[in-house]
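Hey, resending since the last one bounced:
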Amino acid sequence: MAVSAGGHSTTGASGVRKFPTGANYAEALQHPELCFRDADLQRGTVRQVPVLGPKAISGNFASVFSLTTRDGQRYALKCFTRDASAMSSRYAAVSATLQALDVQSLSQPWPVDFSFLEQGVF
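The structure tokens again:
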């Protein structure tokens, strides 16, 4: 699951949209019941590092967190930390294409679900 900034992004003096940092997302993810709109994610548990809080794997434009729902479903939450407008469009297109696939018609099983939420964390 890929998510972009929700209510915490702002526009700086230069007019450029500022995104939350990985640390901002980690802080928000300490309370999934408050930062997600999706009920399953709200009740989920984010993988933690003792004392430090939510464990992130960070890259050039995003931090990825692991969340497990009450029913055991695992999610990788990719949270954007810088503007990746073209990437957002790509993720939305990938999400739509994968959701439209007839899984039974694939020559190989597709074990991973994918969805893009424009404002997944707020």
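The chain has one domain: 2-100+112-121.

Sorry for the duplicate.
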